[in-house]
């Protein structure tokens, strides 16, 4: 019997279940003295504890028609979206790396990035409790990752944090105001730890480009000019996910670009 379809189904289910837990992390981690373990899952509006049938990833939202079964308050679409995204990321990770330690490491990496995306969107912060352990874990992971050496990871951590730190210092010198938070610096160091220094050029370029496009659109819509603020963490996280799954194609396109320039 072919195990690949079963592995994919397992990966999707695992991702959905973990996505349900990530919703708790996204909701509670930014709160001071908030615990991601206690109390048990409950409605954020009426605080009624949820039964097991109200905690089934994706399905419960559909069965309850997007409303709390007790107070009938509308449930945020974020809950099923996070569960679905984590299921898809889990499926992609295991499809790419198989049932390996590499897949396990990148499963944790993508889960952390997904949490960072939503917390940064809502609160414009990137918790140190994710990025700092992530830097250490990324480096330790390199000793078990056949796609990345420990030296590439170490250079990625130093270069990732160093590049954004230098940009932040230069921006402050020129504008006399903070343009990039320390959370972004630590996040890029974490990304460099998991993906190596080779990922940084693409991650910085792609996130800066997409961030600039969204930033200009936000400036036009909000009419605040230079006072417009958008979180940069989600763009870094999305760019790193793209690199994780399409690194071969990215390197190939970069090689074609270099060859084309050499012929000019």
Tag the structure with descriptive keywords.
264 residues; mainly alpha; 2 domains; globular
What structural class should be given to the helix and strand makeup? mainly alpha
Number of helices: 9
Q: Can you count the beta strands?
A: 0
Share in β-strands = under 5%
Largest sheet: none
Q: Element order, helices and strands?
A: HHHHHHHHH
Describe the structure.
- By secondary structure, the protein is mainly α.
- It has helices spanning 3-28, 59-63, 78-97, 101-123, 128-141, 150-175, 182-195, 200-222, 233-262.
- Helix 1 (3-28) runs parallel beside helix 4 (101-123) and helix 7 packs across helix 9.
- The N and C termini lie far apart (54 Å).
Condensed summary:
With 264 residues, this protein is mostly helical. The chain has 9 helices and no strands.
Helix and strand layout, with pairings?
Elements lengths: L2 H26 L30 H5 L14 H20 L3 H23 L4 H14 L8 H26 L6 H14 L4 H23 L10 H30 L2
Helix pairs in contact: 1-3, 1-4, 3-4, 4-5, 4-9, 5-6, 5-7, 6-7, 7-9, 8-9
């Amino acid at each position: 019997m072919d195990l690949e379809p079963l592995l994919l189904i397992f990966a999707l289910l695992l991702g959905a279940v973990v996505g349900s837990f990530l919703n708790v992390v996204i909701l509670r981690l930014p709160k001071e003295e908030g615990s991601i373990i206690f109390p048990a899952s409950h409605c954020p509006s009426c605080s009624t504890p949820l039964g097991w049938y109200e905690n089934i990833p994706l399905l419960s939202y559909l069965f309850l028609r997007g409303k709390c079964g007790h107070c009938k308050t509308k449930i945020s679409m974020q809950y099923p979206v996070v569960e679905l995204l984590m299921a898809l990321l889990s499926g992609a990770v295991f499809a790419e790396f198989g049932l390996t330690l590499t897949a396990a490491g990148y499963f944790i990496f993508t889960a952390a990035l997904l949490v960072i995306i939503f917390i940064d969107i809502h609160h414009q912060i990137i918790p140190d409790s994710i990025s700092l352990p992530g830097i250490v874990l990324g480096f330790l992971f390199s000793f078990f990752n056949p796609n990345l050496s420990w030296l590439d990871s170490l250079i990625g951590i130093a270069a990732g944090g160093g590049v954004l730190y230098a940009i932040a210092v230069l921006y402050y010198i020129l504008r006399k105001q903070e343009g990039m938070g320390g959370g972004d610096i630590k996040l890029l160091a974490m990304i460099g730890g998991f993906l190596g220094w080779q990922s940084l050029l693409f991650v910085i370029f792609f996130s800066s480009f997409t961030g600039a496009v969204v930033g200009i659109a936000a400036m036009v819509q909000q009419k605040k000019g230079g006072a417009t603020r958008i979180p940069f963490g989600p763009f870094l996280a999305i760019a790193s996910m793209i690199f994780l799954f399409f690194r071969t194609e990215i390197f190939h396109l970069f090689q074609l670009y270099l060859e084309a320039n050499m012929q000019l």
